[in-house]
Amino acid sequence: MRNHPAVVLVAVLLSTMSLPISLTGASVALPDIGRDLDAGLAGVQWVVNGYNATFASFMLATGALADLLGRRRVYATGLALFAVAGLAGAFVDDIVLLDAARVLAGIGAAAAATSAAALLAGAFQGAGQARAFSLFGTAIGAGLAFGPSIAGLLIEAFGWRAVFVAPALVACAVLGLVPLLPESRQPHAGRVDWPGTVSFTAALLLLIFGFVQGPEFGWSAPVIVVAFVAAVALLALFVRVERRRAAPMFDLALLANPRFVGVCLAAATIVAVLVPLLVYLPSYLTTVVGLTPGAAGGTLILVLPLLSGALTRLVPAPAVIVCSVAVVAAGAAWATVIAPDSGTASLAGPLLTIGVGIGLSIGLLDAIAIGSVEPGRAATGAGMINTARLASETIAIAVVGAVLASTTAGRLADPGFTSGLRTVLWAMAGAALAATVAVAVLVRRGAARAERARTA
Q1: CA dist., res. 321 & res. 308, Å (int)
Q2: Cβ neighbours of 87 (radius 10 Å)
Q3: Which residues are CB-neighbours of 413 under 8 A, at least 6 positions away?
């Protein structure tokens, strides 16, 4: 039996950071991709949305497969698919082929991410596990935050294709560590929930299709209306399927736990604010402000301090989570100062505020979520929290893209880009503030329930 916790940690952190870099890094390359491949806004948006949509929608399925077939095996398969799809981006000369490669990369990323969390949970226990997941969460945040700056440097040095090749090469390096990783699986093998997988995946993809193509086809176009209606119907079918299964991949029973729901809502809200900004701010900074890709990426560096571990020694973990969502809401409201003459100095305050909000809880959220499920279904539990996170950010990216496409007539340029971005930021701030109140209520109810259980 292989048991090298340090190797597991290194492999997981490297792969975990490369997966979100592939998302936010690609956002800096979108203007260059559109010009080089002569692609319209919708086609370019699928470079980001195709990756993120399959990343989110395959989380549950790959988490269940990892529990059944083995976490190390699914981890390696996911990394290999992610690497192959990323390297393909160096050779394609058609936007449709690039979008297809990104869809495959998202499936590989989903498999790698859920399995990585389960491998980490099995390699560490107690306080060590909490520290490991703090680093795990920080790696996710660092990949999201530093993706634009890394991509900007790569684009200036090697061109936009390097944005996809670099994370793929990291994945290839991590594959060399796979033989040293431990294998584990669910003790009692079952079957993959294919009806749940298909209904959830199809619902999310149709929803994203509707938002991305809506501005181009028209919101009243039959294909868009049918996409939205079918998405709602499929989500209802997904809930019905999961409620009837003895061992569902999405354990709806956990939704009766207020603390778990509060953690999921906090995680979903934070990324729904952060990721759309990291996707669309680079385009604003390059096309409206006039910065180079490298300067635009550098402007988006956020501070991601390991604050949660230190704070939870002084402040209860639920209070830290609530505070983090509130700080992110404040940062989004502050970011409405953005203007065509904005630079690093004027955006440093709001972006650093959002970064501090993320740093407060990002590792803490994952640790609490993983601790809420049985060890034998660790990958499934990781899939649930990450699905909430990724589904919310995917939908947020699509919605923000639809708003900006409408205000700019599909050009992502002024006039319309500044006003549209400010509208989006105010909406984000309001939604995050409402989520802060909801998270506070939910975690308080969860604490009260836990206290009653202890005294019963």
Answers
A1: 9
A2: 18
A3: 287, 288
Task: Verify cis geometry, omega within 30 degrees of 0, for the bond prior to 222.
Answer: no
Interior angle at CA 201, CA 196 and CA 205, nearest 5: 155
Residues 51-109: tens digit of each pLDDT: 988 888 787 778 778 878 888 999 999 999 999 999 998 889 999 999 999 999 999 99
Tokens 């809930």, residue? 239
Radius of gyration, alpha carbons of the chain = 21
**Structure tokens given for 431:** 């939604």
SS3 readout for the chain: CCCCHHHHHHHHHHHHHHHHHHHHHHHHHHHHHHHHHCCCHHHHHHHHHHHHHHHHHCHHHHHHHHHHHCHHHHHHHHHHHHHHHHHHCCCCCCHHHHHHHHHHHHHHHHHHHHHHHHHHHHHCCHHHHHHHHHHHHHHHHHHHHHHHHHHHHHHHHHCCCHHHHHHHHHHHHHHCCHHHCCCCCCCCCCCCCHHHHHHHHHHHHHHHHHHHHHHHHCCCCHHHHHHHHHHHHHHHHHHHHHHHCCCCCCCHHHHHCHHHHHHHHHHHHHHHHHHHHHHHHHHHHHHHHCCCHHHHHHHCCCCCCCHHHHHCCCCCHHHHHHHHHHHHHHHHHHHHHCCCCCCHHHHHHHHHHHHHHHHHHHHHHHHHHHCCCCHHHHHHHHHHHHHHHHHHHHHHHHHHHHHHHHHCCCCCCCCCHHHHHHHHHHHHHHHHHHHHHHHHHHHHHHHHHHHHHHHC
Q: What is the rounded CA–CA span in Å between residue 456 and residue 320? A: 28
d(CA 151, CA 153): 5
Say which amino acid occupies 114. T
Residues 6+ apart with CB under 8 A from 155: 28, 29, 32, 162, 163, 293, 294
Residue 164 clears pLDDT 90, i.e. is over it = yes
Is the distance from CB of 293 to CB of 152 less than 8 angstroms? yes
- As a whole number of angstroms, the distance between CA 70 and CA 325 comes to 35
Which residue is associated with the tokens 């981890």?
75
- Give me the pLDDT at residue 303, please: 43
- d(CA 143, CA 22) in angstroms, rounded, equals 8
pTM of the model: 0.80
